[in-house]
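re: that complex we talked abt at group meeting.

here r the seqs, copy pasted straight from the sheet so there may be weird spacing, ignore it
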Amino acid sequence: MPPEPANPGIRLTGVTVTREGTDVLRDVDLTLDEHRIAVIGLNGSGKSTLVRLLNALVLPTRGTVRVGELTTAQDAKRIRRQVGFVFQNPENQIVMPLVAEDIAFGVKNLGLRGTELTDRVDAVLDRLGITHLRDRESYTLSGGEKQMVALASVLVMEPSTVVFDEPTTMLDRRNRRRLQRTIDHLDQRAIVVTHDLEMISAYERTLVVHEGRIAFDGEPAAALDFYCRISDS
Amino acid sequence: MSADSPQTTQNTVLVAVFAALIAALGLVPPITIGIVPVPITLQTLGVMLAGALLGPVRGMLSVVVLEVLVLAGLPLLAGGRGGFGVFLGPTGGYLIGWIPAALVIGFLVQHWALRQTRPGTRFAAALLSVVVGGIGVIYALGVPWTAVVTGLPLSTSLLGSLVFIPGDLLKAVVATAVALNVHRSYRRLLGGVQTAGR
Amino acid sequence: MNGSRPGGPLAAVPAGCKFGFLFVASIVLYAVPHVPAQVAFFVLAVTAVLLTRTPLRRLGRLLLGLFLVVGIVFATLVLTSTWEAAAVSALRLLSLCLFAYAVTLSTAFSEMLALFETLLRPTRHLGLNSAQISLALSMTIRFIPEIRSQYLAIREAQFARGLHNSPVAVLVPLLVRTLESAQEISSAIDARCYDSAPPARRPTPPVSD
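got the structure back, here u go
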């Protein structure tokens, strides 16, 4: 079951993000401490920016983002150890020529070396059932395999929250379901941006981002109703 | 945008992807451009683009990164060549020349060509920058190197290299057109790029 | 990409020694312009290459261009100068390149890379940091096949649109895509706690939670 006490909540207070003179996000106040949170919204609604705030990939123009006691503006590095990020396109997330090297990359950044390092890599490969990919060259992987390796490279750092930015967009239906099952079984808190509405039906909370604001915040079923109305208008 | 030193990470990434681009352009099938009947490889085109798009320092570093990998034995040069041998061989000077070439192209494009406001003048200035760096500098090292290594007279070495001039001129034109086109959509690439009318 | 594992007795010699030998050899070969000495060096160089146990077909492919150039040089020099000068030039060039290939063929890529990283270490005084250099080297290897296949895909798309001979139409989208990826790649690296300016080898303190 989720390690709730050790998992600090994420709090956004009066957050505005301005880019080239326009507000991408405006006055967002949120506390995120549920185990499964979905974020949906139209293209360009600001949902990608919203989740990039959570691990200091984007800093707020005004307001603060806190993870436990830490703020993203000051403690980016420590926050990134707690909040992992899986990108839409795994192609851009895998930076090393070999799968094992790539998964080791983040752990090395945490200062681990030697057997401690290889043990962690092997453990995460085993947990995701992709041990057979260990010595493959990254570019020879299929799209589904790449996304699993990208996920492994984040989980290996043992974050308490994992943010997924449209993780299934590049996948076929079969790999989509496989990734969905993997996310469902994570011990970590998961915050998932997605257009895949099937995926999030069992989530505890769904946010709908619309024109830079949180336009809806609640149960998935009601969120979907709301989302369909704004998409069709 | 992000915390800490995103600029540094981004620069490391740009250096690496352009090194990869130069290598990749040597590994794709050679193409024929315009009137020159012989297929030419695009690798020096990659060097020109690295300088013209990334500026002097990052452009030069991406050539250095590629050449370190070649020196270490990877077959990343056009035709699958690599290793110490290519550097010590008769055409080694041209390879060494790629490094200052990217530097010179980057410097001239960033500080001179991109400051021209009229599109015609800008194209001419950029083309001249690419020719000076991508042909002038490379041949200035390559030609004497061949002469020294082989013991041939300098004039013979120079005469032999003339065969490649038409192809290299065409590459310079392509590199210039591509670079200016890309700069139009990526103005932040070389800080403080001025564009006419904006 | 990393080629076959090098074999033969030379593979056991440390890369640094071979690199040093190559450096000395390149000086000696120019210092001794006598035919008998050059022949001796040439025999030594051929032996060195054969000791790497590289298949002859692969050697042939590697050296074909070199032999061609040396042949032209030799012929030109025989016509314009003495045959001794021609022989010295041709043998010197062949020996040098053969020694260089022997070093490359008998050294694992990773060993060579480690040597360069050691040699480049002094550059940290110039503000370059070795972690960044090794990241750039690895990333280059990672992205070469990716960019190559993107190039081929874009070219195919342009062929389909009837743009058969337009390198500009292929390269502009390729570069725009590459630059877009570069942005995302560097975000992904930052997200995985990469420290672009690490303090001198200090282990990161454990998170207190």
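couple things i noticed - Chain B has one domain: 10-185. The longest helix of chain B spans residues 119-150.
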